[in-house]
């Protein structure tokens, strides 16, 4: 549906406020407004007699919206290597330990981030992740997300989901005391599901860019280089990779903040350095 497709002008700049043009997916924006309205009603206890039914109504819409977002996510990542990789236990563990994950929305234990925030720890985690990804060579083009529209969709989904996941928490905090705890638990679970899917979108994008880097640079193994001779111009695969990074950075710019873009593209340098050794 059109309500779950990204809408933004090309090369538009990111805006943190919806009023200033932040391109949140329309379907998620609608459920966000609904949840916020329910939060206000619950806080004011304007209609306590119907509060529980109202919460169930909001919960139903949250669940249906989540399922639609999950479907869009799966359509973008199905059978792609980056999606399968983030589900691996060893990769997931290292991504949790990676200090770069501190920018994710309440994603991982902050103690892990603090314990691995030192320079040496950061380098070790990044190097180990790169080694695991390099061991997957050769990377095949059909296993990558080549459609930039799907890249944009994942970026848009991530930030829209992150926005909406706050609303169930607000509804829960604003519920009248007469309501049972079951709706509150359901709303908390909804917020957690939205948050996890938002994180998965970002993790897929980060790993995808690392795999793209390996895909382009693995061409080096089929070429010969002279140690003492400077290259007159970059290899064609380097030019192609640079163009790909630039294009995707411009495409997702309206949908993702600078911090999240740094996370998405931040693993490229380490991967490229290890691939060149």
UniProtKB/TrEMBL annotation:
Keywords: Exocytosis, Protein transport, Transport. One of its GO terms (biological process) is protein transport. Coiled coil: none annotated. GO terms for cellular component: exocyst. The keyword Transport applies. The keyword Transport applies. Component of the exocyst complex involved in the docking of exocytic vesicles with fusion sites on the plasma membrane. Belongs to the SEC8 family. PANTHER family: EXOCYST COMPLEX COMPONENT 4 (PTHR14146). This is Exocyst complex component Sec8. It comes from Gossypium raimondii (Peruvian cotton). The lineage of its organism: Eukaryota, Viridiplantae, Streptophyta, Embryophyta, Tracheophyta.
């Amino acid at each position: 549906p059109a309500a779950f497709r990204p809408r933004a002008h090309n090369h538009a700049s990111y805006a943190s406020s919806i009023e200033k043009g932040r391109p949140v997916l329309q379907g998620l924006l609608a459920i966000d407004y609904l949840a916020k309205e329910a939060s206000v009603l619950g806080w004011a206890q304007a209609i306590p007699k119907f509060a529980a039914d109202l919460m169930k109504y909001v919960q139903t819409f949250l669940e249906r919206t989540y399922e639609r977002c999950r479907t869009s996510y799966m359509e973008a990542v199905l059978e792609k290597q980056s999606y399968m990789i983030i589900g691996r236990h060893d990769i997931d563990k290292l991504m949790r330990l990676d200090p770069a994950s501190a920018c994710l929305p309440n994603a991982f234990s902050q103690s892990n981030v603090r314990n691995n925030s030192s320079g040496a720890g950061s380098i070790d985690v990044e190097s180990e992740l790169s080694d695991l990804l390099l061991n997957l060579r050769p990377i095949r083009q059909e296993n990558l997300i080549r459609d930039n529209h799907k890249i944009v969709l994942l970026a848009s989904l991530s930030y829209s989901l992150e926005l909406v996941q706050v609303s169930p928490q607000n509804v829960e905090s604003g519920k009248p005391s007469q309501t049972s705890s079951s709706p509150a638990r359901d709303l908390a679970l909804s917020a957690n599901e939205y948050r996890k899917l938002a994180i998965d979108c970002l993790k897929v994008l980060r790993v995808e860019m690392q795999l793209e880097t390996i895909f382009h640079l693995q061409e080096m193994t089929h070429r010969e280089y002279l140690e003492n001779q400077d290259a007159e111009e970059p290899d064609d695969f380097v030019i192609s990779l640079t163009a790909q990074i630039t294009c995707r950075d411009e495409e997702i710019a309206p949908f993702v903040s600078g911090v999240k873009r740094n996370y998405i593209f931040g693993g490229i340098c380490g991967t490229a350095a290890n691939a060149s050794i």
